[in-house]
Each structure stands twice: as C-alpha cells, then as structure tokens.
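Chapter summary example.
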Amino acid sequence: MTDSRLARQTAERLIGSRAQLLKYNGLVGFDGFVDTILEVVEQRQAATKYTAYRSLKDFAKKVANASGKSANFEIVPTLEKLGGNGPIMAFALSTLGAPIEYIGMVGYPKAHPVFNEFGKRAKIHGIADPGLTSALEFPDGKLMMGRHSTVNEVSWETIKKRIGDKNFAKLWNQANFIAMVNWTMLPNMSALWKKILNEFKPAKGAKRKLLFFDLADPAKRIDADLIAALKIIGEFQQYHDVILGLNESEALHVSKVLRLKKFPSTPKGYSAMAGAVREKLGLHTVVVHPVQYACGADAEGEASVEGPFTAKPKISTGAGDHFNTGFLIGRLLGLSLPHALQLAVATSGFYVRHAQSPNREQLVRFLQTL
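The structure predicted for these 370 residues follows.
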C-alpha cells in the first residue's frame, strides 16, 4: 500500500522546484546504446495479427525443448530508442528540468540519429559509437542481447583524444552532481575512475559534489574486479557525497562479495542491507530497489517505501535508470530519504506505465494520485 501522505508531500515539494533545479549543473557518463525493443511471436493469426509469448518462463521452456533439435522464432520490433544506463538517466534528468552535459557512446564524430531528441535537451559529447542491444521483453522479465565492441573505447585516453583533458576538467569542475553508471559493461571504467580520483581533487573549501554510481548487473564481472571497483567508489566519499544505487540482484551480489550477513527479503531486511553496505564502504547513501518497493540508508537512518507496482508495464527497460533519476532529483532538492525514495519509485512507476520520461508536471499529477 503506497503512503499517500508521503506521496502528496513529495508532490508539493516538486511543484516549486523548477528554479532550484536550474541552478544545478549535471554531468553523466559514459555508455550509450541503441535499444531495439522486441516481442517474440508465439502464434501468428494473420499478416498483422499475432500473439506474443506471455512470459519469459514460457519462452524459456520452448528454447529448452529445442535442445538436440532446432527452433525458429519470429521477433517483432516494437520500438527503437536510445539505450544505456547513462543516456536514459541523463534524458530523464533533463526532462525533469536539470541542466545536463553527457559524455559517452552516442556516436563519433557525429551522434547517432536515435540520440537527436536527447541532443535537444542536453549537451552531448560523443566519444565512441553506440553499442547495439536487442531487448526481448515479456511481462515477467526481459532478455538483453547485445553487440557491444565499442565499450572498449571508453577510457581516459579516448576522452583526452576526442574531448580534450581541459574540456573534461571544465565539465567536471562546473558540475554540481555527477552520475557514472554501467561499470559492468565498461571494462576500463575502474581505471577511468582512478584517473578522475587522482587528477580532479577539489580545491580546499570547495563545495562537495553529489556523485551517483550504478554498477549495472555486476555478477558478470569477477569478484576481485567488483571489490576493487567498490573500494574506488568508497574513496570518492573523501571528497564528495556518494550515492550507490542497487537493484535487488545487484544488492544481493554486492552483499555477498562484501561478505555481509544474510538479510530477509523484506523491506526491513533490504533497508538493513543498504545500511550494512553503506557502513562497509563508508558511503553517504545506499539505495536498494526491488520491483515492488525501495529501501535506503544514510546518516539519518534507514527507510523503505512501497512502489506503485503494475503487473502490466508498457516498458521495463530503463525502469531502474528512472528510479535513479527520481532519487537523485530528490536529493538535489534536499528531500529526506523517505521522500527521495518516494520520488524515485514514482518516476519509475510513471515511466513503466507510459513508456516515456515524465516532466515535472506529469510527475506531480502522478504523485497526487498515489
């Protein structure tokens, strides 16, 4: 059950936020993909009529049954859109009114056409061509299949060559908040973080930036690499206020590699897990967002909120990035942990229902209906 009082309070805080958000410069990086959303046909009735697989589980059974034989699947593209944790998050942030500079795989030397609308809302700086992702979507999950060779180009050397170290320094120094996401898919990200950590130490007395990190399915990487990356994230806390965002599977994996105790799969349990990860890494804030609720921990304590869950999302790819957007916006506006979590689940909730990023007015109205 959503806390309607909390939702109304959050809506009220968002109503007058336009001028405040315009004061904050954001920098986001460094991935970029072209996402093609696809349905898998289970049965075709006519040239323009078909029934898609109702669940990933049913599709998986059909695939498993093809072992030792063969199978033919028809896939139907339903949408082509910009993809990648960074572009989706940056697009959502700019839609809510935050000025954004984006560095990443949006096309080089020219942006890919799928990023044209994004380029109208934010200033984009391409350093490599985008990867290509095919997302087979089902009501109960999705399969992401990609061609991602250009991820290897994301490095300090590429940034220096294609943007310039002085230009990067300017973007970094003028930013009030920075999001560096999709560590898992970018093999040179840890080295890039180290370079930034060593080369861009703030001047004495400078205001602390808000830094947001999202790992993006770190189970694909070896534990030693993940532990090293988490250590670097912790080192940023010396100079900045660091937020680490984790979905349910990411939180469980991070908790495991950090050798934390097991926590119950409940709002209270995941709140305690967020607190334990935060304490272990020495971070400002850790948030954990399973599908139906969200939890977090900061210096003030732990909190959880129910999400506006829908069993029939229009889109699920990008839901986590919109959650991260809402939470970051909440923190920029100085909201308490519960209110920032409420804004996060509402931003994600609107997106999965409408397959588009909400602006402030749409998000206010959505919060008022919860």
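To summarize the output: The mean pLDDT is 96.
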